[in-house]
UniProtKB/TrEMBL annotation:
Bias-annotated ranges (Polar residues): 18-31
Protein name: Uncharacterized protein
Species the sequence originates in: Corynebacterium diphtheriae bv. mitis
Spans annotated as Disordered: 1-34
């Protein structure tokens, strides 16, 4: 069983809060403070990184093409509106 994760945003009962506060560091400090900090955060599960699911090339290329086409059309419409407004002055 791994270490218990305590979230500070939730209310903790008094007896549990005292036991959590009185716990000493789980790792002895060493001269390499950066490595020690990284080890502590990974030990307590605070530095998990969630990777998005990989997509195959044939899944995202059509979506990107459609997005770029829509953005290009919107850009042209905005520029046409600006030209029209300036010419109307």
């Amino acid at each position: 069983m791994g270490p218990v994760r305590v979230r500070t945003s939730h209310k903790i009962p008094g007896s549990l809060a005292l036991s959590v506060q009185n716990q000493g560091p789980t790792v002895q400090p060493n001269r390499n403070a950066i490595g020690d900090t990284i080890y502590r955060t990974t030990e307590h599960g605070d530095s998990y990184r969630y990777r998005s699911r990989a997509r195959r090339a044939d899944q995202w290329i059509p979506r990107m093409r459609a997005a770029n086409k829509a953005l290009s059309k919107r850009r042209k419409d905005i520029l046409a509106y600006i030209r029209h407004t300036i010419n109307a002055l």
